[in-house]
Amino acid sequence: EKGTYPHYMLKEIDEQPLVIRNIISKYQDENGEVTLAEDIRNAMKAADRIYIIAAGTSYHAGLVGKQLIETVAKKPVETHIASEFLYNMPLVSEKPLFIFISQSGETADSRGVLVNVKKLGYPALTITNVPGSTLSREADFTLHTFAGPEIAVASTKAYTAQMAVLSLLAVDAAKAQEIELDFDPIKELSIVATVMEALCDQKDALEKISRDFLNVTRNCFFIGRASDYYVGLEGALKLKEISYIQAEGFAGGELKHGTIALIEEGTPVIALATQKHVNLSIRGNVKEVAARGANPCIISLEGLNSENDQFVIPKVHEYLTPLVAVIPLQLIAYYASLHRGCDVDKPRNLAKSVTVE
Ligand code: F6R
């Protein structure tokens, strides 16, 4: 039930801190350590390469998952769009592990890949919000995202839950290989939950940004580098699916290779700046678009911010910034949809779970 909330989407955005705390409590042992089931740990350890398969928002979580597993657990990872992998399968390594990410666990494109992978005899892990679902039953192992039912068609809490679980999977795989961690994963996730709360309290500021930047526009670009690029893709998907504003996410450095031709006087460009090693470069990209008339909105991380940034996110661990950076984008999309009088929870042409290919 959505209770006093006008829309499920807003309720589900607000539930994100709780979901993260729930995930922490489900996955920590009595010593406050992350421990996953032994068969999952062994499968991660045995794999020489990991293939993440998903669609839509879950694919975007998979892109972040690749980065988490590679940086924390030092395993090579490829993230693929399920419907592409299905008919254009790359050469796979000798000992692959397949990870399916699916909120519903029923997405036909992902299931198609799972069926093929099982025929080939490869191990498969499903990360899902619905443990009894098809993808969960047909895989060898399941990790539950514990986000609770997600009713709004636009996925919000399932996405952040998927990334939180992927971070724990990465941490567990690192431990299995005796890789020293230089951070406390549970503590850092608790900080994420606290920061999420602070962001959910900033609705008025984000509604104003939505009004100031998106009220009259037909299009909007999201730019970022490294993990901010992945979050930008998700921000663009949220905005287009519920407000029908044409929105695209781009890697900051790729803009000048073509897309910059689309920048006109007043085109909104939402830039994410949460990554220290690319902070100067992304700000350079903002200058490039501003010089061509764009209306840039910079969303940065505390400590990397400049004085005139439109929105500053409190600090979290650098690996976990996508979990918090997406929240302003979810809320900006929500208000854009609301201001345009769209059906926030049930956008046109879309179904909550896509069970046909
Ligand atoms: C976007 C959205 C979709 C789903 C996609 C995959 O907000 O919800 O892009 O993420 O259809 O669905 P699942 O995760 O159920 O496999």
Question: Can you describe this structure?
Answer:
This protein has 357 residues and is an alpha/beta fold. The chain is 46% helix and 15% strand. The protein has helices at residues 8-14, 16-27, 38-46, 56-73, 82-87, 108-119, 134-138, 157-176, 185-200, 203-214, 227-243, 279-291, 321-339; strands at 49-54, 77-81, 96-102, 124-128, 141-144, 219-224, 246-251, 268-273, 295-301, 311-313. Strand 6 (219-224), helix 11 and strand 7 form a beta-alpha-beta unit. Helix 2 runs antiparallel to helix 9. The protein is globular. The two termini are 30 Å apart. The mean pLDDT is 96. Bound molecules: fructose -6-phosphate. The active site is at 352 (for fru-6p isomerization activity). It catalyses: D-fructose 6-phosphate + L-glutamine = D-glucosamine 6-phosphate + L-glutamate. Residues 36-179, 209-347 form the SIS domain. Catalyzes the first step in hexosamine metabolism, converting fructose-6P into glucosamine-6P using glutamine as a nitrogen source.
Task: Give the integer mean of the pLDDT values.
Answer: 96
Give the uncertain stretches in residue-range form: none
Kindly, what is the distance between the CA atoms of the first and last residues, rounded to a whole number of angstroms? 30 Å
**Count of beta strands:** 10
Give the SSE string: HHHEHEHEHEHEHHHEHEEHEEH
Query: Which strand order spans the largest sheet, edge to edge or round the barrel?
Result: 2-1-3-4-5
Name the beta content range. 15-25%
Class derived from helix and strand content? alpha/beta
Could you say which overall geometry the principal axes of the C-alpha atoms support? globular
Proportion in helices: 40-55%
Using only C-alpha atoms, the radius of gyration works out to 20 Å
Bound molecules: fructose -6-phosphate
**Number of helices, counting only DSSP H or I runs of 4 residues or more:** 13
Profile the largest sheet: 5 strands, parallel
Subunit structure: Homodimer.
Enzyme class: transferase
Catalytic activity: D-fructose 6-phosphate + L-glutamine = D-glucosamine 6-phosphate + L-glutamate
Protein name: Glutamine--fructose-6-phosphate aminotransferase [isomerizing]
